[in-house]
Amino acid sequence: MTYDAVHDLGAVRQLWQLLEPVHAIVYFAPESYEEAAALGYPTDERWPMYFAFRAAPLGPAEAELVSALFYSFSPRMVERYVDRAWHTAPADRVLEARATAARRALDTLLGERTASPDLAEAARLARRAAQAAATAGRPLAAANASLPWPEAPHSVLWHAATILREHRGDGHLAALQAHHLDPVESLVLHSGAGAAPAEAFENRQWTADEWSAARGRLAAQGLLAEDGTATPAGLALRTAVEKLTDQLAAAPWAALSPQEVARLAELLLPPVLDIVGAGLLPAQGTLGIGMKYDYEN
């Protein structure tokens, strides 16, 4: 079934923007820091927890594999954190802590909503889409899809959001490579297109020389202006990447009817507003909060 056989790309993008905060909260919530600290990870910064929690479905993966799959992080940064991760705690214990952190965080953020019929319905719909996600060529989606499903509805929703998020993320890397954007170039163009200031991506630990060289490569192709902002050609390229990403992310949603997709979006909006309204997630970056793309122009 082709990407547009059931749903338009606007619906696919809307569902990503609604489900991404559900998944991402596990990397920012206080409960996550508590669970990571209990395993022995330092919590003065979030990266030890982030790399351990996100990579754990792969098993005790080496830094080279994690760097390839996480893409936009400096390989030196990945090596610094991943090499320590599995010496601190085995991957199976990290997975348990991650699931507990997600459940606890949503308990706190959603309160009585966790036991509501609406959230249970949203979890069922999201699970159907997640279980329909083909994982060939999508290693992070496959690793998460292989994990057992939890029972509590809010945990089911988080697990479904995670599978769908990583399915989309795997496709996004393919879209970047199809448009010949290397890891640092992808961030430079993302920033140049106005998604976030360059400073927002300094935590990915590319050097100033690496960032400058990527800017130079993009400028030589007519994609960036002298001040680092995207030219019309750069904006068109970034939009093409996002459109292909949405196309590659669309197939799981064919498991739901258009009416069910609309219903899921309706059901997700209140809990997502609770999550975003807590102020734990960054407003600018790669989470897609507030991002829009016009595919027609």
Describe this structure in words.
63% of the residues lie in helices and 0% in strands. It has 297 residues and is an all-alpha fold. It is globular. It starts with 8 loop residues before the first helix and ends in a 20-residue tail after the last helix.
List the SSEs and their pairings.
Elements: H1 9-24, H2 30-39, H3 47-55, H4 63-70, H5 75-88, H6 91-110, H7 117-131, H8 139-145, H9 153-178, H10 183-192, H11 208-220, H12 232-249, H13 258-277
Ends apart, CA distance between termini: 26 Å
**With helices defined by DSSP (H or I, 4 residues minimum), what is the helix count?**
13
- Order of helices and strands, N to C? HHHHHHHHHHHHH
* Structure classification: mainly alpha
Mean pLDDT across all amino acids: 94
How many beta-strand elements? Answer: 0
Which quaternary structure do these chains form? Answer: single chain
Instruction: Give the biggest sheet.
Output: none
Summarize the amount of helix as a percent range. Answer: 55-70%
For this entry, give a set of tags.
63% helix, mainly alpha, globular, 297 residues, disordered N terminus
In short:
By secondary structure, this protein is mainly α.
